[in-house]
Write a structure and sequence with these properties.
The complex is a heterodimer of chains A (about 290) and B (about 350). Chain A contains twelve helices and two strands, in the order αααααααββααααα. Chain A is an all-alpha fold and about 290 residues long. Chain A has a single domain, classed as Glycosyltransferase (Alpha/alpha barrel). A two-stranded antiparallel sheet of chain A has the order 1-2. Chain B is of the alpha/beta class. Chain B has 14 helices and twelve strands. Chain B is globular. Classes of the chains: A mainly alpha (about 290), B alpha/beta (about 350). At the A-B interface, helix 10 of A face helix 6, strand 5 and helix 9 of B.
């Protein structure tokens, strides 16, 4: 396991871009916040210096805490990941705080009524892009970041928890955030189920829905394993103390000779985080 | 909904006809009415193919060869094939068939392409590794040794929107699309429960990058599906379309509809004309499909009289594609006035 982690970390070190960040794949030309945050987290505890990456990430953040991609003038959804990363690394306190402040301020659009009576579109969470609807992944990451920042009981967080449960798929688990369209159920997916469960991990009162979600996560990952689903499944099951060895074996079997998973930096970083979590290290998504 | 021209509100009427307020309502340019309603002649190739097991390479190659200026772009160029790869529900023909993609790869290579890549930005599913496996497209990529590019995670740049029906002024597009010598939209022939039909124009939603706009690309719905389709298509102007209609989808498209054996491939270099033809094959009136009409001022051809059918003659399926109750407008014959205004001359 340690060899697998080491070679994967070597791959990440070799694919860092001159700006200091990472793109999504080894041949990427441009860095993005998401893979850069995962990369930073995956290289904690090594001799890697995070200075350049942190400098690049901080250059994306305006004084009001909004994060902007290059050439863009609308805030990016990656603020929550940045906040989470800076909390875990205990870095850039001012940017960490302004990102949190922005997350608390940033609201998705609500729509009156519901989709065929199935779900409540008036609940407010977080959207991918400003002035649009709320979705599972950005809401979940925002909830997780805010909980890590000490806002577990904040009204925004409580409403978002209600939203996430409201958007559960009919059979349990989560997809991107649309459980039913024109009366047709949309299936859950491993990725969103795991991320939603990250956000809801501290709610014992909702145990049966979380239990169902975990079962769905195991089923979907087993039926359609991929690097992302395996890594997130491992991270999630680890939080809930469920067995992970089978998924770990599958994940390790997919590692390539260059240490990567699919030459994708974000897959590789998430895989490192999963392996570290089960190898006695910290689970970065655990509250 | 623009399903009944008589209900068209004043704003939309002005957008389409160019009368009155120029500039802002008309995508930023004050085109004269005559230019807005004039549609170019277009050639659309219809090929009958009964099965994905057939030798599709020859059919596709034959079809592409009808377009000399497309062949010029292909020779020595980088061709980007943009299929539908959205989700996977067994028994529901959601995605472009791997055999079509394989056929297109070989055809373009035989025609002299320097490089052929397959690129897609799935709308709501971030796990492309899983999607590629579930759809079988990964096997084609391996066998043909072709790169797959996730357009959602590509390098991106802002581009001024040509038509600007949405009012957004710019979209960010992936460099893979912007730098291609030829972008080929390769959709599945399907109904769509909001847009009427999803063909080569709607397929272009997959070029909008999730790294900026998210998963799903919900903002496109907030600013209008038809408006967004037209803005994307008018701006990136793919050079070719190949519609996989061997097995299409009817009913509750684009995900939950049912298979219908339509036995056809529709191709051409005027995507609106290709889609209009495909819609007619489905038993629909393209004049009733808003985003197709919106393409008219930007080189799109809807008027049947201006579309020369190459290959097989135009036909309509003996059983029209089934649609949901709220989508029956696509099967409603437009009035002569509607046809004249929308189809132009």
């Amino acid at each position: 396991m340690k060899d697998a982690i080491q070679s994967a970390q070597d791959f990440l070190l070799g694919t860092q871009l001159p700006t200091g960040g990472w793109g999504y794949s080894s041949d990427a030309q441009d860095a993005y916040p998401e893979p850069s945050c995962y990369g930073l987290l995956a290289l904690r505890g090594t001799s890697f210096s995070s200075t350049n990456t942190l400098s690049w990430l901080s250059s994306l953040v305006a004084s009001d805490g909004k994060l902007y991609l290059h050439n863009d003038n609308t805030p990016s959804w990656a603020s929550s990941l940045l906040a989470l990363t800076l909390i875990r690394l205990n870095q850039l306190p001012e940017i960490r705080q302004s990102s949190i402040d922005w997350l608390l301020e940033w609201k998705s659009k609500a729509v009156e009524g519901s989709s065929g009576g199935r779900w409540n579109a008036s609940l407010i969470g977080w959207s991918w892009i400003s002035d649009t609807f709320s979705w599972v992944q950005p809401t979940s990451y925002a909830v997780l970041a805010l909980k890590l920042a000490g806002f577990k009981t904040h009204g925004r967080v409580k409403e978002a928890e209600e939203l996430l449960f409201d958007r559960m798929c009919l059979q349990g688990g989560w997809n991107f955030g649309n459980p039913v369209v024109l009366g047709q159920p949309i299936d859950p997916s491993a990725m969103e189920t795991a991320i939603a469960l990250f956000a809801l991990q501290d709610l014992p009162s909702a145990e049966s829905r979380i239990e169902t979600g975990l079962n769905i996560l195991e089923q979907t990952t087993t039926q359609s394993p991929s690097t992302i689903s395996l890594a997130l499944c491992i991270l999630c099951l680890d939080i809930f103390n469920r067995p992970v060895q089978g998924y770990v074996d599958h994940l390790l079997a997919r590692q390539e000779e260059d240490g990567s998973w699919g030459q994708k930096t974000w897959w590789t970083a998430l895989s490192i985080l999963a392996l570290q979590a089960v190898d006695g290290g910290e689970n970065v998504f655990k509250l | 909904m623009f399903s009944n021209f008589k209900k068209l509100n004043r704003r939309e009427f002005l957008k389409l006809t160019g009368v009155g307020i120029a500039g802002t309502l008309l995508g930023g340019t004050a085109m004269p009415l005559i230019q807005r309603l004039k549609q170019p002649q277009a050639d659309v190739t219809i090929l009958k193919e009964s099965s994905y097991s057939n030798n599709l390479v020859n059919s596709i190659r034959k079809g592409i060869s009808n377009y000399p200026h497309v062949l010029q772009k292909v020779k020595g160029g980088r061709v980007v094939l943009k299929p539908n790869m959205v989700d996977h529900y067994p028994g529901h023909p959601i995605n472009t068939d791997p055999a079509m993609i394989a056929g297109a790869i070989s055809a373009f290579r035989q025609l002299g392409a320097r490089e052929v890549v397959v690129a897609e930005g799935p709308g709501h599913n971030r796990d492309v590794e899983m999607l590629l496996s579930q759809t079988g497209i990964d096997g084609v990529l391996r066998d043909e040794k072709v790169k797959f590019i996730d357009l959602n995670l590509d390098s991106i740049s802002p581009v001024k929107i040509t038509s600007n029906y949405t009012g957004l002024s710019q979209f960010f597009f992936p460099h893979t699309i912007l730098n291609a010598d030829l972008v080929v939209s390769m959709p599945k022939l399907k109904t769509h429960h909001w847009a009427g039909a999803t063909l080569s124009l709607k397929n272009l939603f997959g070029t909008i990058p999730g790294v900026k706009y998210g998963w799903p690309k919900n903002f496109l719905h907030w600013y209008g599906i038809s408006e967004s389709i037209a803005d994307i298509a008018s701006t990136i102007q793919p050079g070719f379309a190949i519609v996989d209609g061997i097995v299409g989808m009817e009913g509750d498209g684009p995900l939950h509809g049912t298979p219908i054996h339509s036995g056809v491939i529709v191709m051409g270099d005027n995507l609106t004309a290709v889609d209009s033809t495909a819609a007619r094959i489905m038993g629909f009136y393209p004049e009733q499909i808003q985003h197709m009409s919106m393409m008219i001022p930007y080189g799109g051809t809807v008027n049947k009289a201006l579309i020369q059918q190459l290959g097989e003659p135009l036909f309509t399926m003996p059983e029209k594609f089934k649609v949901l109750p709220h989508s029956t407008y696509v099967t409603k014959k437009p009035s002569l006035w509607e046809q004249a205004l929308i189809s132009g001359w």
